[in-house]
Records
---
Amino acid sequence: MNNSLKSSVPTDREVILGVLNNSADTLNKLYKAYYAMVLQFILNNNGDEDDAKDVYQEAIIILYNKIREGNFELSSKLKTYIYSVCRRIWLKKLSQNSKKAGSITDYEDVLIVEEDVEEHEEKDLQFVKMQSALDHLGEPCKTIIQDFYIHNLSMQDICEKFGYTNTDNAKTQKYKCLQRLKKIFFQP
Amino acid sequence: MPAKVKENIFSTIIIEMRNDLELDAIIEDYLLGKLNPHETEAFEQLRRNDPAVDHKVVSHKFFLESMEMFASQSRLKEQLNHIHAEIDVESLAADLRPHPSRVIQLWRKHKSAIAVAASFLVLSFVSVYSIQHNSKQEERYRNMSRELSRVKNSTNNLIRTIKSNASSDTPSKSTNPGNFGGTGFAISTNGYILTNLHVINGADSLYVQNNKGESFKVKSIYTDSQNDIAILKISDKNFSHLSSIPYTIKRSTSSIGETVYTLGYPKDDAVLGEGYVSSKNGFIGDTTQYQVSIPVNPGNSGGPLLDDNGNLVGIISGKPDQTEGAAFAIKSKYILEAMRAIPQDSLGANKLSASKKSLLSGLKRTKQIEKIQDYVFMIKVYNN
């Protein structure tokens, strides 16, 4: 397992180009390349597998967004960057849960990534807000909205999936849902 | 939605102004650029005229952006979850989680530190070994018993044997001068003498000779091979008791630099050797001995080592064969140990002790020598 993971470690250049080109294969390789490193870090610092998954995915998203925004400068190894971001996120989580952070066992060099992590946290607030708005929306509205906006299904598809007699009905339904969603979303 | 219908809706909106649902749809179409130029113009007109509609457009635009971001993030997360599902987390975690054994945990945590420490240890072992190895080659312990020209003697003996064979009817008394010599000193007034075991080892007969040249036959009472100590007892009728022992035993260990001296018989007359304690340990760190800086010669073995106040610091026992001017002396506490090992009442009332005050204290060296010379004996060893 370990070996197969290591053998497919992509070069840092490969990763950046792949992310910019929206390559699913690159994302796959990237994810598998450094997961073990982060898992080890979290497991040895008061965390479990689920913590490792959350933290690692957050770090990958930060890296992904940074590359997509086009302002990612490769000043260090990607490995070091990912490790540093995960470390920062995990330390924050530990202190939020008032778990003992104590002495953190490190496995890699550490970069200063506070800015990137905080920037991401702000964006994440919006994400969480939308998520909870959707959760409050209830079915079938949630699925209709998700299908339309996230999975990019056409109104025709939605109409068929939910068994509406015609697309206009589906559309009306969608706008009703949207109106409610906006109401929840814009609630202070 | 056919354009005709849309236009109808428009007019409816404009007329009724508030069909929220329809308005939302048009705003979205407008923001997504799905309206045709004509419709766009009409809608922008509406937007300019009605601040409420304009506000709706702005807020919907913000909402759509949030939704777009949410959508892309959700898609990415879904993708990541999909990838994550392909990883065998269980076995990986089992490999990487903190090992129950503390040793392995420590090893993992401090791998590099341990490596450094280990290499340092190896290095120091190597250097210590090489130092010891070197000193082993250099230093050899030489016992300071005097071997009296053995070859010559044995030749003499041989000649004498021939002679006695020739005149067998006139048995001559042996006047053997002794093969080995050393030094010993009295530990009691009734004739107990302490010396090195290696001086008397293998002896057939033993004699001691005082500074006046009188010889007395002695026999070995006690030997301690570990500390190289032997106690002899004068068993000669002619021996008269000594007056009280002038020196005492020093209980505490001596400091480096303390002035010490010894009286011994490297030749037929007593010889004074003076120096200082140069090391708290003896040959290759032997803690039972001091190293002293006193010139000693074969024959000094078993001699008393005294400090300025006449306290017995040790027994001269040997020297390193490469270092000039250094000698080793057995520490005085082993004298006490040896004395305790023999029956206590046999030593009599006036034995050497640690509690009495030394009679030599405060005397000049010459006076001290005068007082102790009656108590230091030459040991003569015969082994034919």
---
Amino acid sequence: MGKSDVSISRKEFLELSGIALLGSTLGLQTLTSCESATVIQGQIVGANHAIGHLLRKAISLPIHQSHQTKILIVGSGISGLTAGYFLQKAGIKDYEILELESHIGGNSTFGEDEARYPWAAHYLPIPSPENKELIDFLAENKIITGFDENKLPVYDEYALCFHPDERLFVKGFWQEGLIPNMDILDGEKNQIGEFLSKMNAFKTAKGNDQKWAFTIPLAYSSSDTSFTDLDKISMKTWMERNAFTAKPLHWYVNYCLLDDYGTSIAETSAWAGIHYFASRKGKAANAKDDDVLTWSEGNGFLMKLVAKNQLNHIKTQRLAYQIEEKNGKVSVDVYDWKTEKRENYTVEQVIWAVPQMLRPYLMPQQKSDFIKDFTYSPWMVANIQTKPFDTGRGQALSWDNVIYEGNGLGYVLSNHQELSQDQQTWQLTYYKPLVDNNPADERKKAIVKTHEEWKSEVLTDLKKAHPKIEESILKIDIKLWGHAMIRPTIGFIHGSARYEAQKSLNNKIHFAHSDLSGVSIFEEAFYHGAEVAKKVISNIYHGDTDYTNFHGE
Amino acid sequence: MDKNSAKIPILLLFSVFLVATCGLIYELIAGTLASYLMGDSISQFSIIIGLYLFSMGIGSFCSKYFDENLLDWFIQIELLVGLVGGITSSVLFVIFNSVDSFQWILYGLISLTGIFVGLEIPLLMQILNKSNFGFKDIISKVFTFDYVGALLASILFPLVFVPKMGLIRTSFFFGILNTLVALLVLYNYSAQLKYRLTLWFQAIFVFVLLTLGFIFSDNILSWAEATTYDEKIIFAKSSPYQRIVLTRQGSNIKLFLNRNLQFSSFDEYRYHEALVHPLMTFTKKPEKVLILGGGDGMAVRELLKYESVKAITLIDLDADMTNLFRRNEMLTKLNQNALNSPKVKILNQDAFLWIKQNKTLFDAIIIDFPDPNNFALGKLYSNTFYRELTHTLAPEGLIVVQSTSPFMAPKSYWCVNKTLQSVGFKTLPYHVFVPSFGDWGYVLATKNEFSKTQNFPEKLRFMNDAAFEQSKVFPKDMAQQETEVNKLNNQILVQYFEEEWAKVM
């Protein structure tokens, strides 16, 4: 996202968002992606164009309804839902969650028709033992079914990714695993080996503060500059400096970073790049350290668990468009685009659980120059329903199927965790971060493409490995994510913007989102949701205001 | 020389060329087919070439008995070569599995083609000789065209015809070429021919026959491939899940699922008695029994030999399979109409999903799934699946699992044993010899002790105390070995199974 993206005024934003919903290229797709997240089923399903137009009217509308609530959470992605989850655990019930779209979940959104399939995030690596809150959450929800005599978690075997998990299509043949190992030179093979052992060394490395050099949550990582200085160069530069020049290795690292961050090897900082390989320290009684948890609906499964006890606190189809402090409280203007009515919330505490890039629009009175450092990568996700097809030579159809030097990131077989012998339709989820140009340009390009164009782009890529796949395809749905992931570019993670952005405003408006970590993964969203809940809970119980009435109901 | 006789050499020399090409192609097709169908390509090619050349010699020898009506004879021979050569490969493909003496038919057809081809050239030379050409010229021209044709054939055959047309179509194609030569000569010299009407009739018949063969050669091929079963197919159906094929030879009926032999009526009693009865001798008052797989009803037939058994639930995904074994008279005779017993409840459901939601407890569970040759089936042999079974098994109940061959795939077999143990079962591995399968293994499992509660039924044909005692002994070449536990997230059993069967297939 360029500087121009954030320099428009709130009034312009409101005016332009109508156009944005009609397919503007202003990079506001996350906000406007409510119904405009272009779901295509053989055609481009039209966005809810009316919202934008009516939004302009909203400002002139009289306030239809005024609400008083103690806490308001804006956004029902993982961070917002997690905040609510921990509020509930602390016995706090006087809160509401507002969601712009008509469904909840953010990047954990999933689709459900004949099959269930993810629209974005689709797995969780088994977490490190240090990630106590997440481990507790998983245990509470029976994804961890118990602990063995060494206190290692025992995971639900239906959630651990079934074998075969990964395969890579190289020169007409599917090899097992994603690290290229077929048809490569000895020298290249050696480099890959050295690279991986170097990453393993980083995995166990600690800084002078005795903290892990790289860990998840990212906030627990060491601030030792011998590691954090790696944030000042790109992963590509770091690899070149360390004589890691082999082409297959560069392909592999680039692939991994695109997959997790939506940024290329040249854009990702070396710290973030190494973090990908070195931060996961999962341990389990019944799984390998690098095993992952996955479900047909991807992280939608986890999202439902976080949300399940608070569904009556969530209001969808609500656009919060103005947040300001008034008389010691916070006033939040909300547009209900379903009923086309304007609402106002007067609340004690606000949990901001949407991307930072929206701050200048919703809180124009606040100084937020640092927001320009928050940039987001656009993605295209295709969900493809097929009849069984010839899966090619070599390793059998796997969970993750990647084409070497392919155009996208390959596809995940979303029905991989199904137990049935009888799988007459398959669901492939195909991922592609849009990284040919800068994110703003890519968003412009993406929004004008037709379903036919996306379809042929996806098919061209898949046909490299499955020449006859088209005959077996029943349906291709496409969804565009304007601002899918925060980009851990050079200097971002250990720069000042991320720290500035995390500061609460007057102890009344608090921030929680994975973009505050610089890494768009479930664990970080969960961490920020949990952290912000702690702050709010402490304010509620120990603040000077009278909250005696708080337990309500 | 008149006007016509000047044309003779050109047309006939062209015939020599085509005849030589076709002749060599038939030889190559025969060699390829023989090594393809019977293996051992060195012997097959060697025998075919020798036999073919020898037959040509016989043909040449016989040519001296032809004195009159040489052109008639030439056309006649040409048509015969076209017919026999053209249909040889499809005949061989089709009969391959249905006759015992395949190679004699192969050699017979080769000899016949060789004899006809051997006649062609000498006959042509005689014809040319009578047209007052110099002997030297005839020899030189005929053999030149003969050898050029041979070279062309041997180059085009592997590079163009086999890859582009396949053996059957190539065969028809050259048969048609032979017939066209005959037709051309027939047309041009009709006036000189004595039997022209008969020859015309024959030529057109052969031409139409070969052309039809050429057009429908794909159908012939697929039909021929369907006969790669050893015996006569008496039933074939593709259900949504598998290809069901029944064959019969004499009184022996075999069932194939996706080309894998499931049973042979000749010795299936061994397999099914061994599957069912040891389990029952250890089960205290078996009333409710669950069978997973086993849609053929043979295991049910064995179970119905126990009066204590009151209810049998059979879970088999494929309704086509269970319906077949409930309705087909020949098959209900085999399973003694077991699937129509009022004690039996058939559920055409997915075993894993059914087990996960099932709340009923069973006294005995019989698991008769196909071998774990793919990842979908591998799930049904996982520790997770066996753990689910413990929720469906009465506290004192027993399970038996068909566990592939401990001789062919010892690691796979012992992996099933280990996986059962890993979820808290005590196991009792045993194996029996089933001639159609080989040495076959089973594993009994229980959370209790194995204590015998009843005797084997008396009327069994195979299983008794002595046979069971013997079946518990594993000789050195199939002795227990260390393996990993088969889990959903490693599917190690499928890997073992593939490695071990790859060695012997």
